[in-house]
């Protein structure tokens, strides 16, 4: 099952490698992807293992509170649709930094933007790879040679092959295939769950409202439709958490962070024009929305049909549900889909990171925007994909004990605090200047990282009976009480961008270029066109 | 060849851009967009955070069953999906109007 997917995607890679002539083809798939295709690819890029495995597990264990993630992940796309997709496509070329550097000073802005892109992509990627390691080695536990480390290396190498040879064409098709597979698997699982309840929604929700949970040897019935099992005041009191405030902080990071995730942003360069970019966001919203609604059946299905002991690891709720409903073959299928999910997301992250390095850092910072020879940028991107892959493999192996959800949460928080304010200001605020962009990016990035290090995700005092894999990195009481820094770091990034602008000299050149930039972003005049095939 | 095509005659001088920027139609387009997008963003953020605040601080209000065992919380969550799709649909309709306005304006500029 795994092998079939791997072979199929390698086939796609070989096929698309032949199309990769020129940098527009390699970085942006020749801008020839159709709206619905890009919609599927955005969905495939976005629905990570954290969604499929993480959310179904969270609903299976904490009921309604897990579903809160599903809601946030979809609503977030409204900010992509309203604010970033079209201006980005109209004014940019390959990366987020193109939009920022259009009227600001290219070198400092690109350097800062490339740095935040690399940080976000690496955090996200390491999380996916750690997840893959745990998942695959648990699934194939009969083969003892498949250790988490072996899987991490395997995933890393595969993704390097996709990205280095397949470029954006290959990555796009890997993501499309994965989105279709994941939707198919989710529909099949939901169907089988409802079959257990005689396709009677009433009976299904009756069962959900009385899930028997064994805690400390006592069996009680809990209503899983009621909120509060994870973010409630009582639920978080034990860990000293702030309960609902954490929920707001997470909500902010999700809703504002998605529009700043580099691997989502680069997808809008692969379509012919801004209109198609807009159409593809809507396609993605339909697919993503249906998927997240169906997590109801996956998560609640696992909660009602399986006991906690049967699920074991929280992330295994969906595969174990498949095992229970469809036997070994279905279990293998769902596991292969989960693996495909991880591969596609990792490939998307790698290409956005290496594009940013080659296009922003190499071509525009090191070479100061001087003409680089034909094909050099692509070559640098391929080499940096190799490095990004290698660094992520090493980090994923070293950080294996770190909680995956916190890495993903951090990536969203950095995207929301560093990238989004700067994107919005550069599009809508004439006075915005280079100093503002650089301080906004740096402060947003630093604030999110510092706050997360001081939060209960990293700091905490564990008793001697806590397993090594679950111990906190810093054994001390947390200084910052929230697990997600968004509610503090986003305003900080925003204020830094404003102050940086107002406290520095007006940048006449940037303001003069605002007319050109404004006309471009709103009309698409002079935007990069699709190439012929 | 896979060379990127040159874009369709963007204005060659900064005067050209400024001329378009100063066209009344362009100013109208920006105002129309702002009048639509800003309220939309405010609305969806309010609707989403109202949901988070209600669920977070007033769980007893949303635990009330409405249809069978399905409670206010779950229905409110589902309504977020409907809201997001609805808002996207509204924007698609609006954006088609903007596209036409842009096309007409560029025609007048002979671009």
Polypeptide structure, described:
The complex is a heterodimer of chains A (533) and B (111). With 533 residues, chain A is mostly helical. Chain A has a single domain (2-523), classed as Sodium/glucose cotransporter (Up-down Bundle), CATH 1.20.1730. Chain A has helices at residues 2-17, 23-28, 35-46, 49-62, 64-91, 96-101, 106-139, 148-196, 201-208, 233-237, 244-257, 262-265, 274-305, 308-311, 317-366, 376-398, 404-428, 434-453, 486-503, 508-512, 514-523; strands spanning 211-215, 218-222. A two-stranded antiparallel sheet of chain A has the order 1-2. In chain A, α4 (49-62) packs antiparallel against α15, α5 (64-91) crosses α21 and α7 runs parallel beside α18 (434-453). The two termini of chain A are 34 Å apart. Chain B has 111 residues and is mostly helical. Chain B has one domain. Helix content of chain B is 75%, strand content 5%. Chain B contains four helices and two strands. Chain B has helices spanning 14-21, 24-57, 59-62, 72-108; strands at 65-67, 70-71. The longest helix of chain B has 37 residues, at 72-108. The two termini of chain B are 25 Å apart. Residues 1-7 of chain B have low confidence and may be disordered. The interface between A and B is large, with 67 and 60 residues.
């Amino acid at each position: 099952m795994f092998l079939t997917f791997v072979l199929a995607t390698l086939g796609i890679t070989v096929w698309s490698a032949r199309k990769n002539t020129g940098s527009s083809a390699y970085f942006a798939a020749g801008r020839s992807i159709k709206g619905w295709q890009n919609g599927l690819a955005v969905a495939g890029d976005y629905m990570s293992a954290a969604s499929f495995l993480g959310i179904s597990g969270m609903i299976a264990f904490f009921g309604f509170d897990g579903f809160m993630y599903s809601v946030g992940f979809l609503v977030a796309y409204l900010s992509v649709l309203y604010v970033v997709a079209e201006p980005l496509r109209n004014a940019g070329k390959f990366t987020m930094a193109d939009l920022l550097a259009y009227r600001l000073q290219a070198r400092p802005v690109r350097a800062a933007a490339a740095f935040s892109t690399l940080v976000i992509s690496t955090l996200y990627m390491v999380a996916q790879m750690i997840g893959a390691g745990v998942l695959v080695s648990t699934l194939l536990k009969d083969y003892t040679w498949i250790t988490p480390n072996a899987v991490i290396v395997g995933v890393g190498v595969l993704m390097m092959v996709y990205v280095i040879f397949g470029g954006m064409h290959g990555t796009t098709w890997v993501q499309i295939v994965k989105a279709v597979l994941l939707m198919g698997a989710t529909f099949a699982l939901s169907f089988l769950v409802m079959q257990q309840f005689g396709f009677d929604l009433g009976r299904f929700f009756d069962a959900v409202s009385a899930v028997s949970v064994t805690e400390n040897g006592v069996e009680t019935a809990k209503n899983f439709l009621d909120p509060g099992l994870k973010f409630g005041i009582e639920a978080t009191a034990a860990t000293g958490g702030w309960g609902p405030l954490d929920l707001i902080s997470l909500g902010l990071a999700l809703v504002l962070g998605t529009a700043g995730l580099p691997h989502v942003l680069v997808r809008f360069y692969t379509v012919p024009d801004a209109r198609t970019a807009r159409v593809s966001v809507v396609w993605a919203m339909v697919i993503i929305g249906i998927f997240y609604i169906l997590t109801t059946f996956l998560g609640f299905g696992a909660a009602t049909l399986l006991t906690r002991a049967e699920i074991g690891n929280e992330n295994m709720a969906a595969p174990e549900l498949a095992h229970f409903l469809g036997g070994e073959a279905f279990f293998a299928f769902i596991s292969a889909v989960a693996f495909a999910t991880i591969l596609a997301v990792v490939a998307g992250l790698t290409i956005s990171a290496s594009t940013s390095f080659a296009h922003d850092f190499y071509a525009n910072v090191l070479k100061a925007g001087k003409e680089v020879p034909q094909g050099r940028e692509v070559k640098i991107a391929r080499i940096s994909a190799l490095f990004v892959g290698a660094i992520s493999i090493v980090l994923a192996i070293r950080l294996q004990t770190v909680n995956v959800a916190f890495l993903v949460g951090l990536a969203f928080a950095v995207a929301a605090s560093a990238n989004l304010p700067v994107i919005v200001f550069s599009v809508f605020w004439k006075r915005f200047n280079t100093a503002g962009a650089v301080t906004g990016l740096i402060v947003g990035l630093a604030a999110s990282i510092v706050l997360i290090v001081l939060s209960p995700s990293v700091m905490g005092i564990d008793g001697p009976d806590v397993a090594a894999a679950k111990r906190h990195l810093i054994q001390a009481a947390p200084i910052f009480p929230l697990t997600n820094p968004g509610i503090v770091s986003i305003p900080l990034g925003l204020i830094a961008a404003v102050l940086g602008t107002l406290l520095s000299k007006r940048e006449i050149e940037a303001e003069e270029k605002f007319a050109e930039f404004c006309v471009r972003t709103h009309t698409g005049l002079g935007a990069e066109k699709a190439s012929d095939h | 060849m896979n060379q990127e095509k040159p874009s369709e005659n963007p204005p060659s001088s900064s005067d050209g851009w400024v001329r378009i920027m100063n066209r009344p139609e362009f100013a109208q387009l920006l105002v129309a967009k702002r009048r639509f997008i800003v309220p939309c963003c405010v609305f969806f953020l309010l609707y989403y955070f109202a949901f988070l605040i209600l669920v977070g601080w007033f769980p007893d209000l949303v635990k009330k069953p409405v249809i069978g065992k399905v409670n206010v919380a779950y229905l409110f969550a589902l309504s977020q999906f409907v809201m997001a799709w609805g808002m996207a649909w509204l924007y698609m309709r609006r954006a088609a109007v903007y596209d036409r306005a842009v096309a007409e304006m560029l025609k007048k500029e002979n671009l």
